[in-house]
Amino acid sequence: MNKSWFITGTDTEIGKTWCTLALIQFLKNKDLRVAGMKPIAAGCYQNNIGLRNDDAEQILALSGLDMPYEWVNPYAFLPPIAPHVAAEQVGQVIELDVILNKYEHLLAQADTVVIEGVGGWRVPMNASQSLKDMVLAMKAHVILVVGLRLGCINHALLTAETIIHDGCSLVGWIANTLDPEFDAQSSIDTLSSRLGVPLLANMPYLGKLDVPQLAKSFDKPSLKNLGLF
Question: How is domain 3-225 classified at the CATH fold level?
Fold first, then answer.
């Protein structure tokens, strides 16, 4: 199979990790070997073997493949700020070649790789590159997570337009309910008619993470048409 799926979002804190975990679980349910990756992570914690990120650790654990943490998360930074700024503060440069090297290791061990981005689409990696350069180099298909809240229509359409303008392959989107009081259906209807790519999943609001439940949200015909399984 050897297809890769890059999970990006309309903003930070809109559910990319939960959606990444749900997609990994969905694909595992199809008897695929799935590797997960979070190449860049900020807001990490220090333990006795180095910096670790909670999201990346969940991705590694759910993948269930025998691989080092550093393949999943090559760049980890302590402060919860934009990663290129965090890297500058510690005198480090995020290098695309390093990320691609780890990605190739994952690709060699799995049928498919699910990659979680950092922040929104336009987050810089270093002085000259952004997430689009990573996605283009990986030849990954992009899935856009839309956090359903006030302003999400504008954010989603602008992000989708930019992804396509950058020459990347936007193949679908995920509606993620952030606020149970928000009237999400009108936003879903508007985006479904304007984004031009299929709605792959409509994630319900959950008070705590339930990966098996979220994995059931994926629309199987849409995913099968993409060749996800």
Answer: Rossmann fold (3.40.50)
